[in-house]
Every structure is written in C-alpha cells, then in structure tokens.
Amino acid sequence: MQKNYFHNSKINIDFLETKTPIKKQYIRKKEKVDINTLLNKVKLEEKKEKKKIFILCLGVSLLMACVTFASII
After folding, report:
1. Rounded Cα gap, residues 59 and 56, in angstroms
2. With 20 labelled, which of 8, 13, 46, 56 sits at a CA distance of 20 to 30 A?
3. How many other β-carbons are positioned within 10 Å of the β-carbon of residue 14?
4. CA distance readout (Å), 45 to 14, 25, 33, 41, 59
5. DSSP string, 42-67
6. How far is CA 4 from the centre of its chain?
7. What's the CA gap between 62 and 67, in Å, rounded?
8. Model confidence pLDDT, tens digit, residues 47-73
9. Spatial distance between the Cα atoms of 61 and 71, rounded to a whole number of angstroms
10. Bigger pLDDT: 48 or 28?
11. How far is CA 51 from the centre of its chain?
C-alpha cells in the first residue's frame, strides 16, 4: 500500500476557479514631458554622486593618515 504524504495529490475544482474578477489595466493618456526638468534631475543626481565619492575619499585618506601616524609611534 502506497503512502501519501502530500495533501495536494487530488485536484480541487474550487481551486481552479477564479473567485476574483480580472482587473483591466487602463493606459494613461500621453503627458508632455519637459526635457529641461529631466536634465536638471540628472545634473542633481550627478552632483550627489560626486559628493558621496568626495566624502568617501576624504574618509579613506583620513583613515590612512591615522594608520600611518599610529605605525610611526
């Protein structure tokens, strides 16, 4: 006699039926996009990235200076 360890061995008809209606996706109307605002956003993001890189380099150089000073002492 074969043992069934899984309770999902039988197909349940209720499971196959969808109980929620399928939602329709509506396409939005085309909106005008101003290229200047997009370019300004890109410029601001580049400035933020440069600032992060500068802070990272400053922190690494400070750490290297501390290690050099500690090794000299």
Report:
1. 5
2. 8
3. 6
4. 52, 32, 19, 6, 21
5. HHHHHHHHHHHHHHHHHHHHHHHHHH
6. 42
7. 9
8. 999 999 999 999 999 999 999 999 988
9. 15
10. 48
11. 21
pTM for this predicted structure: 0.50
pLDDT at 52: 96
Q: Helix or strand or coil: residue 22?
A: coil
Rounded to a whole number, what is the largest CA-CA distance in the chain?
80
CA–CA distances in Å: residue 17 to residues 7, 8, 24, 49, 60: 19, 16, 19, 51, 61
Structure tokens at 51: 């600032």
In one-letter notation, the amino acid at residue 61 is S
Location of structure tokens 């501390």: 66
